[in-house]
Amino acid sequence: MAYLYLPRNHQPDDSNPQWMNKADNAWQLTSATLVGLQSVPGLVILYGSIVKKKWALNSALMALYAFAAVLVCWVGWGYQLAFGDTLVPFLGKTNFDALEQKFLTSQAFVGKFPNASMVYFQFVFAAITLILIAGALLGRMNFIAWMLFVPLWLTFSYTVGAFSIWCPQGWLFRMGVIDYSGGFVIHLSSGVAGFTAAYWVGPRAPRDRERFPPNNILLMLAGAGILWMGWTGFNGGDPYVASLDASLAVLNTHVCAAMSLLTWLMLDILFYEKPSVIGATQGMITGLVCITPAAGVVQGWAAVLMGLMSGCIPWFSMMFLHKKMWFLKQVDDTMAVFHTHAVAGTLGAILAGVLANPRLSRIFYMVDDWPKYIGLAYGIQSGKFNAGLRQLWVQLIGIGFVFIWNVVSTSVICLLIRTVVPLRMTEEEVSEGDNAVHGEEAYALWGDGEKFDNSKLQFVHEIEEHQLSKSGYGL
Predict the structure, then answer these.
(1) pLDDT number for residue 450
(2) Is residue 32 part of a domain?
(3) 141, 201 Cβ separation under 8 angstroms
(4) pTM > 0.85
C-alpha cells in the first residue's frame, strides 16, 4: 500500500480555498481558452487564407506574434494598468505583481476564482483586440513596426478603455455604461484604431487594392467557424460565474449571429444576385460584434432584432457609404475592420442603451440602482423615461470617449514608431510579399502565375513502372 506523506504545514484543502467555486473556475478557464482559440488558430487561419496568396504567411504571423507579445506584456504590466488600483480615473497603477504567487492564488476582484484565472481570461480579450487591428493593416505594414505597435498600443490605448469601462474604479463603469463583453473595449476600439493606423501606414499596392482574391476560401470558413464557436466563451464567460445569465448570453450570441448572417446573405442576393461566401462571413462577424455589448442584458426577441439590424446597417455602410464618402475611400482598411467592428460595435452599444432589460441588467451588475442599467425602451414602458434616456446618453458618452481616445493614441503611437522605423514595407516587399519579407512562402510548389510542370514526375513514374515490370510485380 502506498502512503501520501504531506509536510506538517500543508493542509489537504490548500488547493481549494473556501472562497473558490470549482465550477465557476472551470467555466472561466474554459471560456478563456475558447476566446484564445478564436485568435490562435481562428484568426491566424482566417487572415492567412482570406488574403492574396503572396501575403498568407505575413498575415498569419502578424496575428500569431500579437498573441504572444500581448501575453508577455499583459502579465508584466498590462493587467495592473487595466484592473489595478486607481492611478487616475481612466488608468490603474503598475506594481508588477501579476506573476507573484501570492497575488495569483488570491481571490480575483470579482468572481469565486483566483487571480490567475482572471489574468488569463482578460489576456485573451486584450490579444484578440490587437489581432483585429492587424486586419486593417494586412499586405503592407512593416513587420518590425508591427512588433513595436503591439506593446505600445496595448499599454497606452487598450488599458485605458478596459480600466475606464470594466474596472469597478473606472469613471465610465461608475457612470453606468453597459458593455457586457467588449463592444466598446474591444470592437469599437479595434475598428477605430485599425482604421486610424491604416491611414498612417498608407494603402496597399494599387494592383493589390484593386484585386485581392482569397487564396483559400474553404480554409477561411474553417477560421470563421472557430471564431463563431469561440464566441461562446467570449460572451459566456463575462458574468464570471456559471450562471443563468451566462446561458442566456451564449444563446443570444448565436441567435444574433445567425440572423445577421442570413440578413447579409439576402441583401447580397437582392442587390447583387449572388450569395457571397465572404459576405456571409462578414454578416456573421457583424452579428457577433453587435450582440457583444448587450449579450446577457437583452431578451431573445431583442437579439433577433439586433441580428437583423447588424446585418443591414454595416452592410449598407460597407457596400454603399464606403463608396460614396471621400475620406472612407482614401483609407485602405484591408479587412473592412471599421465596418465590421467599429460600425457594428457602435450599433450594439446604442442598442444596449435602448433594449437593456433592467431585471437582466441587475442580475449581471448585481445592483439595484434604478437610474442605471435600464434601456430606453423599458424606461418608457415602466414610466422611467429619464432613467432610460440617461442610459442612452451614457452609452453615447462611452462611444465618444473610446472613439476620440483611439484616434489620438493610435496616431501618436504611429507617429512615434515612424521616427524609429518605417511604418510601411519597402516597395520591393510590397510587390513580392512573403518571400521578400520572410524568405518563405505559404504554397511553395509553384508561384503566382506559374503552372506546375509534371513532366519530370511523369518520367519518374515511367522508370518505376519499368523496374516493377522487370521484377515481376508489374501489371
Answers:
(1) 57
(2) yes
(3) yes
(4) yes
Cβ 164 vs Cβ 172: under 8 Å: yes
Determine how β-strand 91-92 pairs with β-strand 86-88.
antiparallel
To which residue does cell 441583401 refer?
267
Q: Which domain holds residue 322?
A: 22-436
Average pLDDT, the chain: 89
Residues whose CB is less than 8 angstroms from the CB of residue 284 and which lie 6 or more positions away in sequence, other chains included:
224, 228, 257, 258, 260, 261, 264
| Residue 203 in domain | yes
Specify which residues 92 forms β-bridges with: 86
Query: Considering its fold, how many domains does the chain have in total?
Result: 1
Asked if residue 14 is part of any domain, the answer here is no
Instruction: Output the domain CATH number for residue 387.
Output: 1.10.3430.10
Residue 281 near residue 224 (C-beta atoms within 8 A): yes
C-alpha cell at 378: 423599458
Instruction: Report the distance separating Cα 10 and Cα 20, nearest Å.
Output: 18
pLDDT of residue 457: 46
Q: What is the pLDDT of residues 370-379, one digit of tens each?
A: 678 999 999 9
pLDDT tens, position by position, 242-256? 999 999 999 999 999
Instruction: Indicate whether 207 belongs to any domain.
Output: yes
Tell me the three-class secondary structure of the chain, residue by residue: CCCCCCCCCCCCCCCCCCCCCHHHHHHHHHHHHHHHHHHHHHHHHHHHHHCCHHHHHHHHHHHHHHHHHHHHHHHHHHHHHHHCCEEECCEECCCCCCCCHHHHCCECCCCCCEHHHHHHHHHHHHHHHHHHHHCCCCCCECHHHHHHHHHHHHHHHHHHHHHHHHCCCCHHHHHCCCCCCCHHHHHHHHHHHHHHHHHHHCCCCHHHHHCCCCCCHHHHHHHHHHHHHHHHHHHHCCCCCCCHHHHHHHHHHHHHHHHHHHHHHHHHHHHHCCCCHHHHHHHHHHHHHHHHHHCCCCCHHHHHHHHHHHHHHHHHHHHHHHHHCHHHHHCCCCCCHHHHHHHHHHHHHHHHHHHCCHHHHHHHHCCCCCCCCCCHHHHHHCCCHHHHHHHHHHHHHHHHHHHHHHHHHHHHHHHHHHCCCCCECCHHHHHHCHHHHHCCCCCCCCCCCCCCCCHHHHHHHHHHHHHHHHHCCCC
